[in-house]
């Protein structure tokens, strides 16, 4: 209330004093600025350097799957507090309010140009996409569902790593998810991992790195250890391109780097190449 | 067993000079030890050793993270912080065990996977992920024992098993308490406080379903009596290995998956 009043006063005070300036986007990769509207029009891709920015999970689903085809799985699952960690419950509740998310991943079934798939999309707005029990459980169930139903899995990863507030329980989610990936693989299922910004820590060291096909978006961060941790160990600055998608591609850990605007079409082709065709009605 | 110690006191204990390492334990517990070298891809990581030996006369495969007993040894084994080729060597040796129907015994003792440029270039994340996934379906029994430090993904890469035991004072954690304090509170000096709330002790592991057994240490810690602690580890293995080997492998694999599958806390 008081804040609204303050904003009105500020607006009046500024009126006529400055010409209208459109909101700008400052790119974290090239540091250059572009109009925010242009950046958003490109689905959050920097017009200057092609850095692929972070998408909200709902936006990712909207630009990837066939309209109205997404059916969420386990959408109501919420985090508990296995270590009784100070303030963790409150922090989760607050983020549920501000982001509208229950935790850092959304999973479900959908079709892509008619081909059916199980989809998982991590969302870095919820505690940096860190993997706690909910992320681990939902991803595990997504793979188990795909195994039972003969479906392929596409995972869009975005994570700062482990959920510190869940301690060792968070670490064990790496084993849980990787185990489910392995069983899906043994059953002959296709798994495509799409690494988006940022894919690091325990997610890199588990299901993200286990795709039959690993795709990365341009210039996104992919790595195991944090940049600052490594700089602390070697006592020198790392080159700018260290741990970017292109670096991991060159080192042989990424199959292809795909621009966002081409991703839906390429995923559809890959699904069809593995025999996942539109079901006859 | 000692009177109850805090997590912090146990951390001091496992960093005591003279705490036994895998190199002390192998001659005490096993016979006919033959070490194997290299991942057949890049090189031979000295932070992880692997090979064949006998336990009570039965051939077993041993994979272990190596701490040094002095600075020179520690330099040679990179302070027990493996590179990707260490994990890949471990997987190669585990596959060999599977082929020849030998049970695998993993000894975990690491501050964590090494964080460096070369480790990233060679795929530290992929190497750990691959071990976790492959150990989950390895068709031979696996027992893992945390000797001292169980540091994060670097420990888990040897920690997917049918049963996990902790030495009484050992810890297992997602991150060192120091790293934890610096990430969460931007203040590394609060490491003692972090160690107490992180739940990292052997008892914590059993109550969270991460470990199944605690191996008792001699009064004051393992360094006080190498014979006794070795005897305790051997007694545990001599009971567990035949027990797991008797099980139908498909049942064992189902139980291994379930052991990890059920860890987690959430509300539906
Ligand atoms: Zn840019």
Task: Please describe what this structure looks like.
The complex is a heterodimer of chains A (281) and B (268). The N and C termini of chain A lie far apart (55 Å). Mean pLDDT of chain A is 92; it is low at 1-10. In chain A, helix 5 packs parallel to helix 6. Chain A is built from 10 helices and 10 strands. In chain A, 38% of the residues lie in helices and 17% in strands. Chain B has 268 residues and is α/β, with parallel strands linked by helices. Chain B has a single domain, classed as 2-enoyl-CoA Hydratase, Chain A, domain 1, CATH 3.90.226.10. Helix content of chain B is 43%, strand content 19%. Chain B is built from 12 helices and 9 strands. Chain B has helices at 7-14, 22-29, 71-76, 84-99, 117-121, 124-136, 152-156, 177-184, 191-197, 202-207, 226-246, 249-261, and strands spanning 31-36, 48-55, 58-65, 104-110, 142-151, 163-167, 171-173, 213-215, 266-267. In chain B, strands 1, 2, 3, 4, 5, 6, 7 and 8 form an 8-stranded mixed sheet that branches. In chain B, strand 2 and strand 3 form a beta hairpin. Chain B starts with 6 loop residues before the first helix and ends with a strand. At the A-B interface, strand 4, helix 5, helix 6, helix 7 and helix 8 of A face helix 5, helix 6, helix 7, helix 8 and helix 12 of B. Strand 4 (78-79) of chain A pairs antiparallel with strand 9 (266-267) of chain B, so a sheet runs across the interface. Zinc ion is lined by residues 27, 29-30, 32, 46, 48-49, 51 of chain A.
